[in-house]
Predict the 3D structure of the following.
Amino acid sequence: MATLQAAKVRRLAESGRVEFGPLAFYHPLIADGDTPVRTGIQTSAPGYVAPMHFHPYVELLFIIEGEAEVWLQGDEAKPQRLAAGDCVALPANVPHSFRTVGDKPMRLLGIHSNPDRVVTYLDRESDAQGYPVLDAELKPAS
């Protein structure tokens, strides 16, 4: 007889908060490295632009509320606009970015097809958990 495994439940209200700079923060959800995917909710204020970065795996961004524009490196002049309910799959090892559009905050569910968050930023360092290294003013550490 097969052994039953317990469902893994993570609650947003109980998750930690990781600062992504003065205009955005992230709540890791399924993010302890023992599942084949990793998830989290990012909240970004108007004016936020994610630094150009890439992952060695596919990343999915599902817009929960607000609007965003997303683009791959080289296609900055042709961003794809996303609204609540839209999802984009970003290819592995291709630098990409996104920004909040409009005057309302944007929330997204990020789904990393990897047990761990692995990020390479083109203009800043990341820590061992794949988060940007920031100084006390939430600016990229130099």
In short: The longest strand covers residues 38-44. The two ends are 56 Å apart (CA to CA). The mean pLDDT is 92.
